[in-house]
Amino acid sequence: MSKFTIKVKLEKLEIEVEGSREDAPLIAKRVGQQMGGLLQPALLATGNGNAPANVVDAEVETENGAGKKKKGKKTGGGGGRTAAEMLNFVHDPSQYGSPLQAWTTTQKAIWFLHIVGKQANVTQLTATHIANNFNKFFKVSGAINSGNVITGLEKERLKGASSTVGADQTDGTAKYFLTQSGTTLAERLGRGEAIAD
After folding, report:
1. How many whole angstroms separate alpha carbon 132 and alpha carbon 86?
2. How many CA atoms are closer than 13 Å to the CA of 176, on its beta-carbon side?
3. pTM for this entry
4. pLDDT tens-digit map of 92-109
């Protein structure tokens, strides 16, 4: 059984994984989930495939030290978007439901925070990121506006003990996350329960 080491560098992020060849698919899947879709699991498992944007270097080393280096394309322009802004995941409507046009912007934002936490392992997003990503995946359910997301989530955040969201403002920008009440609300929305706002 041959051993391997995987080292991936994303600008200032390093991940190193060691294991046996039998573990490679599972390890690749778990690392891919942890990175919220920024890395393609196939790249980690096999050392081939197209590197996603923002991957500068990815190297897979075998036990004898031979490694194959893959170059990804560096992001250009794009209006200053970072990889964290635009999420990449596959939505599972059978498990989390789908948004309805009748939902309020706040309900859509809370539900979206819940599903990206579960499916992309992203637990905090700014209102702009919520709106941009919701519209990317669920525009057919009614596009949302970041200004309305801020208004709705701030109103929820200020409810005190019964608030459905909190906000991390350590870097000067509010990154919203769900409280236990918010998770409960999102699960109810996903099950299709009628909820008055």
Report:
1. 7
2. 31
3. 0.58
4. 888 999 999 999 999 999
Structure tokens, 22: 């039998």
H or E, element range at 190: helix 180-190
Residue 182, token pair as written in the block: 């918010």
Q: Which amino acid is it at 156?
A: E
Query: Any alpha helices (H) in the chain, and if so which ranges?
Result: 24-34, 41-46, 93-96, 105-119, 127-138, 146-157, 180-190
Q: Which of 194, 190, 151 is nearest to 174 (CA)?
A: 151
- In whole angstroms, give the CA distance from residue 25 to residue 49: 14
Q: Containing domain of residue 37, as a range?
A: 3-79
Distance CA 156, CA 4 (A): 48
Cβ(78)–Cβ(31) below 8 Å: no
Number of domains in the chain: 2
- Look at residue 86 and tell me if it is in a domain: no
**The CATH number of the domain where 103 resides is what?**
1.10.10.10
Is the domain of 27 the same as that of 98?
no
Q: Does residue 117 fall inside a structural domain?
A: yes
